[in-house]
Design goal:
mainly alpha, Na+/H+ antiporter like fold, 16 helices
């Protein structure tokens, strides 16, 4: 029973939500965060295991999964690239009049693999077999792009950039025959300890802004528009990848469009970037946290509505 629980993505996502909400509740009811700076720092650096796991997953897909056919890699690659660039460009445009707010341009770029797969798992039978592979593929590349951005463009501390980048590269260097064993060993620890602890510490802060104010702030609007930006960027990238590669897929354009809705779910990496670019306790930081949570909720609801009308796939 425990093994079955550990392998189900929706349970990992549920735990992540509970941990984050608990952090918010404790901080705002108690009036201050109960997490020390040292614990918060440790939780940040423990994400290196998450990025190491991303590296392992990428290596697995490159050697025997959806990326084995290098030609077919172009579709999720372009979907991920445009899916990251379009939301960032929208955010940058919306916040053009606020240099401080513009620092958060990378917040809407990444897709949360855990949440996206959790929502998808409820409707997987309504899609063909290639749908989950495409979702996993562009989400992994999304996170690799986030690693590059954190290391090169966000002015992150040298140690943070080195650990994040090094962790992913280390995962790529692991011999293929050891990947499955390492993933089975690390995934439960990352999904049920590392990510929930990070969610708790990242959201364990007093929120001094209202939901209404987030909808009229440039930071809030820029992040909320990530849902539209992700749909447009991922869908266009997938279409362009199909045109350029000529790959035959069991997915139609409308399938890519519907899967792209899940790209609007950002959590773990979005919160990490928020902590790197905005000072905790600042108005911009609070607005970014609330907006990221709202964007994830909106994307989840839109995906649920869209997928509910699909008939079960015959493949």
């Amino acid at each position: 029973m425990l093994i079955r629980f550990i392998k189900v993505e929706r349970n990992a996502a549920l735990l992540l939500v509970i941990a984050g909400l608990l952090g918010l509740l404790v901080a705002n009811v108690a009036g201050a965060s109960m997490v020390s700076d040292q614990v918060a720092l440790i939780s940040h650096y423990s994400l290196c295991l998450f990025f190491f796991l991303v590296g392992l997953e990428l290596k697995r897909e490159l050697t025997g999964g959806v990326f084995k056919n290098r030609k077919s890699l172009l579709v999720p690659l372009l979907a991920a690239v445009f899916g990251a660039l379009v939301p960032a460009a929208i955010y940058f445009t919306v916040t053009a009049q606020s240099p401080t707010a513009q620092n958060g341009w990378a917040i809407p770029m990444a897709t949360d693999i855990t949440f996206a797969l959790a929502v998808f798992s409820f409707f997987a039978r309504r899609f063909s077999k290639g749908a989950r592979g495409f979702l996993l593929a562009f989400a992994i590349i999304d996170d690799i792009l986030a690693i590059i951005v954190i290391a090169l463009f966000l002015g992150a501390p040298v140690l943070t950039g080195a650990l994040v980048t090094g962790s992913a590269l280390l995962g790529l260097l692991i011999p293929t025959n050891n990947i499955a064993k390492l993933e089975n060993l690390i995934h439960p620890f990352v999904a049920y300890i590392v990510l929930p602890v990070f969610a708790f510490t990242a959201l364990s802060l007093p929120i001094d802004v209202s939901v209404g104010s987030v909808f009229v702030s440039v930071v809030g609007v820029g992040i909320l528009l990530r849902v539209i930006g992700k749909i447009a960027g991922i869908s266009f990238g997938a279409w362009l990848g199909i045109r350029l590669s000529g790959v035959n897929s069991d997915l139609k354009i409308k399938d890519y469009f519907q899967i792209s809705i899940l790209g609007g779910i950002g959590f773990t990496v979005s919160l990490l970037v928020t902590d790197l670019v905005f000072t905790k306790g600042s108005v911009e930081h609070s607005q970014a946290v609330v907006a990221s949570l709202l964007a994830a909720l909106i994307a989840s609801l839109l995906a649920t509505i869209a997928y509910s009308f699909r008939a079960k796939s015959l493949t």
